[in-house]
Write a structure and sequence with these properties.
The chain has about 450 residues and is an alpha/beta fold. Helix content is about 25%, strand content about 20%. Strands 3-2-1-7-20 form a five-stranded parallel sheet, with helices on one face. A hairpin with a 3-residue loop joins strand 14 and strand 15. The termini are far apart.
Length: about 450
């Protein structure tokens, strides 16, 4: 069986106008073999998650563990708001996080604030003339493969008009910061109904001032949870933090919290209720009876509601995406490609490499990489997200494998001997890797946290 793409691809739909969609459009354009590149963006702007809004979406379900049941993004006709908060700065130096051929302006702070990242993406879209390819306010409602082509159905959020178009290939670049994961805790659903304690997911956190003089329970130890604890510690009465799995980030953060305000607690056993009050019971028989707000910094679920075949093929509960080759290509039809799914990576340069591989594979320039080390499991397997959480070393290995593949190196022995220095597809520079590995310490030295 040939490992090269088995059909002529000329018309390509990209779903999402954020960093992934822009990376895809640039790579497809640079390949020079595609006739039509169309980006569908449900909001009125480029930039995706980097568009801050003080507004928030409708509250999620509590709990929220089954993506196929709780994802309401298609039924929500309004614009989807970004999960970033008002005071967010990047947790990576701008020279690490940028597209590798488009540096940030020279006067950009080492760890830029979110408006500067949005400005970077806006200017890129204008300078490279990508805006004419983008259909704003256009929600993709259904994508299915019929009669050897992809039929993409959309609706316009302004006038409600609907239409369906045909494409040879589809890029999914919708991100994965929309559908919260909120674990199932005994008593949580009843608490959501009785409203005695405010419930919030980090997706809907914006400013610390909203929690002045309140007692918080923050669940999680990732970037968002750590930032929320750090910010609210300046105004809150007391903060409890529950961390299931420690990371280097959470270990460093705990050392810097004000000890009189922030208290580390054990895992939650259940939420108790009587006739007039509700409280949290921890494992080890300790109770928290003074909590005003519970904030879940517990991550997100993968979900692609516009793909009617996602159930039983791609999504089980939403903890991971099944049946993909190299975290990108749908195994049953590699003319469907996903960008930016791995977690704890540097998104922009990684999606840039993924996009170059995608464009060159679809143009017929390179074959599918036969090595199956990065083939995600079938739907019958365990629905654990651990395989999608890369971290530094796995990210380096994956990124360089993508680079070698983009340059036509597909044999595993050849990859070991591959020493390209191309800025987009070559080996990662030692300087880039050192900055990436030391980002936490550099950020603390630069921003103070």
């Amino acid at each position: 069986m040939s490992l090269f793409v088995q059909k002529s691809i000329k018309r390509i739909a990209i779903i999402g106008g954020g960093p992934g969609g822009l990376a895809a459009a640039r790579a497809l354009r640079d390949e020079g073999t595609f006739d039509t590149i169309t980006i569908f963006e449900r909001n009125d702007y480029v930039g995706g998650t980097w568009n801050y809004s003080s507004e928030v979406d409708e509250p999620p379900s509590f709990p929220s563990t089954e993506a196929l049941k709780v994802d309401r993004t298609l039924s929500t006709k309004k614009q989807i708001h970004s999960p970033i908060y008002a005071n967010l700065h990047t947790n990576l130096p701008h020279s690490v996080m940028c597209f590798q051929d488009v540096p940030f302006p020279s006067d950009t702070p080492f760890f830029p604030s979110h408006p500067l990242v949005l400005k970077y993406l806006d200017q890129l879209a204008v300078k490279e003339n990508l805006l004419p390819w983008i259909r704003f306010s256009t929600l993709v409602t259904r994508v299915e493969f019929v009669n050897n082509c992809w039929k993409v159905s959309v609706s316009n959020s302004h006038d409600g008009s609907c239409s369906t178009e045909e494409f040879d290939a589809v890029v999914v670049a919708t991100g994965h910061y929309t559908v919260p994961y909120i674990p199932s805790i005994p008593g949580l659903e009843e608490l959501n109904n009785n409203k005695r304690i405010q419930l919030l997911h980090s997706r809907d956190y914006r400013r610390p001032e909203d929690f002045k003089n309140k007692t918080l329970l923050v669940i999680g130890g990732g970037s968002s949870a750590v930032d929320i604890v750090r910010e609210t510690a300046q105004v809150a009465k007391k903060i409890y933090q529950c961390i299931r799995t420690e990371t280097e980030l959470s270990r460093q953060a705990v050392k810097r919290y004000p000890a009189d305000i922030v208290h580390q607690v054990g895992l939650i056993d259940y939420i108790a209720h009587d006739e007039t009050s509700s409280w949290i019971e921890l494992k080890g028989q300790k109770s928290l009876k003074d909590v005003d707000v519970i904030i879940f910094g517990t991550g997100y679920l993968y979900s692609f509601p516009f793909l009617p075949f996602q159930e039983g093929n791609l999504i089980k509960t939403g903890q991971r995406v099944h049946n993909l080759d190299h975290y990108m290509f749908y195994q049953k039809n590699p003319t469907l490609c996903f960008l930016g799914l791995p977690i704890r990576v540097v998104p922009l340069p990684l999606m840039q490499r993924q996009s170059i591989v995608m464009a060159r594979y679809w143009s017929g320039k390179i074959p599918m990489l036969p090595d199956r080390d990065t083939r995600t499991t079938g739907i019958e397997s365990e629905d654990s997200r651990l395989d999608f959480i890369m971290g530094v070393n796995r990210e380096f290995e994956y990124s360089e494998r993508l680079g070698a593949w983009a340059e036509g190196v597909v044999d595993s022995e050849q990859i070991e001997q591959w020493h390209s220095t191309h800025p987009l597809t070559g080996r990662l520079s030692e300087q880039w890797k050192e900055l990436r590995k030391n980002a936490l310490n550099l950020r603390r030295d630069y921003l103070g946290y």
